[in-house]
What does this fold into?
Amino acid sequence: DSGVTQTPKHLITATGQRVTLRCSPRSGDLSVYWYQQSLDQGLQFLIQYYNGEERAKGNILERFSAQQFPDLHSELNLSSLELGDSALYFCASSTQLGYTGELFFGEGSRLTVL
Amino acid sequence: ELKVEQNPLFLSMQEGKNYTIYCNYSTTSDRLYWYRQDPGKSLESLFVLLSNGAVKQEGRLMASLDTKARLSTLHITAAVHDLSATYFCAVDPQETSGSRLTFGEGTQLTVNP
It folds into this structure.
């Protein structure tokens, strides 16, 4: 158990809908990262937050957005869903103490768009 | 754009045999990570390599980093079935503060009895 908590674990929805994925980082970690894993794209970095502020953006679609709240949990919002958005979405966090760049991943949220 | 390439992408080996997975990357970096993923599960951190020449071992797995060649290897010694999983290497481009790991495509390892 990495200490990173993600909900929901599974989500099935229809095209055009909107969903929110939630992540709680490990205790004390200030950085949260979102990754998307799909068969055709592999593991893709979406976005990073550090202590409530956006720090870096990767291959995140405009239909997707994220935020990190004062209690450091983060939410990834996916809207106008398409079939191709079906994937496993991972949240990860990293420590600032003795920083090594190592990421600790949650169990993921599996999104199926029908 | 940083590219991380692993080979092979698929590896089927017999128990007791040795093999090496290679990870090449396209930009200067001295931070490389290996992760293991079981089907449908999370990514488990295996090794953190933070300097040229770094070598780390855990059980039947040993990882090394050659930053000059931009190459990392994951060596499997006397494979056992429990090692069957997908192995990813990831590189920190170190362009900005914080870690935004770029992952390879993964090597799907199957160890057969």
